[in-house]
Amino acid sequence: MRLSKEFRDQFIQHEMRTHGRKNGFVTTGQEARLLHWLPLIGLPKEKTLADANIPAGSPVVMEIGFGNGDFLVHLAESHPEWILIGVEIYLPGVAKAVGRLEDAGVIERTRITQLPAQYVLEHQVAAEQLDGLFVNHPDPWPKARHHKRRIIQKDFAALMVSRLKPGGFIKLASDKPDLAEWMRDILDATPGLKNVAGVGGYIDRDADRPETKFEQRGLRAGRVSQFLHYVKE
C-alpha cells in the first residue's frame, strides 16, 4: 500500500525542500513497525543527539542516505560498540530498514531521521560529536545542470569536518566514475582532511564490506565501485 497522507504528514518534513522520492509503497507490517519504532529511536527536527539517550562514551557513527538499511545493519553487527545515526529522506526505505534492524536485534543502537543531511548536521549534531561518517552511492545527478544537487559540495564537506572528532573518518563509495572523482576532488581540497590513499587516490574495498542493493545494481550494469577514506587531522 502507499503511505497514507496522515502518516506522511506525521513523519515527513514537507517544509524542507529536498530532491528525490519521498513517498512510495509499504506493507501494513512495515507501517506498523514505523509507528512503533520512530517515536522511540527517531530524531524529529526539535531533537538533537544530546536528546537521543546515547550512552556516554559510545562512538557515534552516521550513515547518510542508508537506503533500505543493508549497510546500516552490517555496521551494527560488525561494531556492537557503535551508536549509529541513520539519515534517509525516503520513508519507504526507512520502513524496510527499521524492519531489518529489528529482525537483526540491533535497532536499539540506532537513531533514525528522515530530515535532510544538511539540516541534521547543522542543527542536530554538535561540533566534534561524530566519530565517523559514511556516504554510500549517493545520487549522481548526472546532468551538468543538476550537479549542484549532489550532496558532496564544498560547504557540505566543511560541515562534515566540523562535526567530526579529531581522528574521525569519512568513507564514501560510488560506482559512477564522474561522481567518485567529484567527491574525491572536493574532499582532497577540504582543509582538515587527509586522504588515506594519498591525494587523488582511492582505497581498496574493505574486506568485510557487503554488496549493497545499489552496488549490485551497478555491477549488473558493468560498473565497479570506487572507495574513498578520509581522516580528520
From TrEMBL:
Enzyme Commission no: 2.1.1.33
Pathway field: tRNA modification; N(7)-methylguanine-tRNA biosynthesis
Substrates-to-products reaction catalysed: guanosine(46) in tRNA + S-adenosyl-L-methionine = N(7)-methylguanosine(46) in tRNA + S-adenosyl-L-homocysteine
Record keyword Membrane present: no
The entry's keywords: Methyltransferase, S-adenosyl-L-methionine, Transferase, tRNA processing
Ligand binding (S-adenosyl-L-methionine): 63, 88, 139
Keyword Cell membrane: no
UniProt cross-references to InterPro entries, sorted A to Z: SAM-dependent_MTases_sf (IPR029063), tRNA_(Gua-N-7)_MeTrfase_Trmb (IPR003358), tRNA_methyltr_TrmB_bact (IPR055361)
Role summary: Catalyzes the formation of N(7)-methylguanine at position 46 (m7G46) in tRNA.
Family from the record: Belongs to the class I-like SAM-binding methyltransferase superfamily. TrmB family.
Protein name (Swiss-Prot/TrEMBL): tRNA (guanine-N(7)-)-methyltransferase
Species the sequence originates in: Mariprofundus ferrooxydans PV-1
